[in-house]
Amino acid sequence: MDLQVSVDQLDVAAGTGDADNIAVVKVVGEVDVASVESLDSELKAVAAAGSHHIIVDLSAVDFIDSTGLGVIVKALKEARDNQGWLRVVAQSDRVTKIFSITGLDSEVGLSQSIQQAAGL
Amino acid sequence: MPRSILQIPASPDHIRTARLVAAAVARQAGLDEEQVDSIALATDEACILALGESADWTTNSPEPVGTKHATASDQDGKGYEALAPDGRTLTIALDFEDTGCAVEVSVANAESETRYDEVADADPHDAIDRSR
Question: Which member of A73, A94, A97 has the closest CB to residue B65?
Answer without folding.
Answer: A73
